[in-house]
Amino acid sequence: MIGLGLKKFSCDFHVHTCLSPCADITMTPRAVAKVLTEKGIDWIAVTDHNSAGNVRTFMKALTLQGIKVIPGIEVHTAEDVHLLAYFPDAETAEDYSSWLYDKIPDISIDPEKFGYQLFVNENDEFIGMEEKWLGQPANVKIHEAIQEILKRKGIFAFAHAERRMGILYQLGFIPPVANPVLVEVAFKKTLHEFPSNVAINCLHSSDAHSLNMLKPSMVVECERRTFEAFKKSLLIDYEARVRINWV
Ligand SMILES: [Zn+2]
Ligand SMILES: [Zn+2]
């Protein structure tokens, strides 16, 4: 069998859409695809706060533009920690999303104050609004959130470790919940602050809440942009396959 050969993909694995209350309402599929294309980014993850409600639409719309989307969620745990969950397909992400939805307190918000939570279709038309506030912690502890991700063959990464709602910021340490633990960091200098007792593979992403924030933050070298390749590159072949763009 002849291998396909390795290709370098430009990635941003933490992107919000108009469903996240704190994100700009311009984060719609066509608008996002246009900016990604301009910036040469061809592999992203959609990770809204506590919901996978716009994942399927983004996957469909961006695939048409040659951009691959990993379905994800940024889980807000009971410890006030943000945890990125990545899933093999839209169905699994949606299944996790409904499990999580029931754990989110039934508090609605005034969208004029806290931001609109909008469902969108592939033509950038708003088709609905989430009433429950997605920007609050779910009644789920970190270990339970992780267990449910792994049960669905997903992978997880602690989001923006050194910033507000990041694991280092909130708890002051990185729990040895995996080997290696995937940790998203915002600044290169944070790497020196990591404890040496935990094996860590680092991610870097835009955490874009608006179009201008999207950035080619990582390069992953693999044959094809599949979930399996994503998982293997980050967890197993990290040294050889992953490069971070810190600027
Ligand atoms: Zn976050
Ligand atoms: Zn985020």
TrEMBL record:
Xref: CDD domains: PHP_HisPPase
GO molecular function: 5'-3' DNA exonuclease activity; 5'-3' RNA exonuclease activity
Domain of life, per lineage: Bacteria
SUPFAM superfamilies from the UniProt entry: PHP domain-like
InterPro entries: PHP_dom, PHP_domain, Pol/His_phosphatase_N, Pol/histidinol_Pase-like
UniProt-recorded name of the protein: PHP domain protein
Domain Polymerase/histidinol phosphatase N-terminal stretches: 11-79
